[in-house]
Amino acid sequence: MVRISHRLTRRSFVQLGGAVAAAWTLTPSLPAAVAARDPLLKEAIDRLEYLTPIERAFILDKGSTGITKLPPEKIREIGQVPETWSLEVIPDPASNSIVEQAFSQALGNALNWDSLMKLADRYSVRFISVTTCTNSENPFHISLWEGVPLREVLWLARPKDNVRRVYYQSYSPEGKAPFQSSLALGQIMENAPGDMPVILAYKMNGQVIPASHGGPVRMIVPGSYGSKSIKWVRRIVLTNEFKANDSDADLNNDPENALKTRARFINPPAEASAGKPVVLTGMAQVGIAGLRKVQYCLRSREVPAPVDDPYWTKADWKDAEILPPPQNWGGGLPGGKLPATNQTDPATGNPVEWPLRYLIVHWAALITAPPSGSYDLCCRTIDGNGIAQPMPRPFPRTGFNTLHIVPFIVKG
Question: Is residue 288 part of a domain?
Answer without folding.
Answer: yes
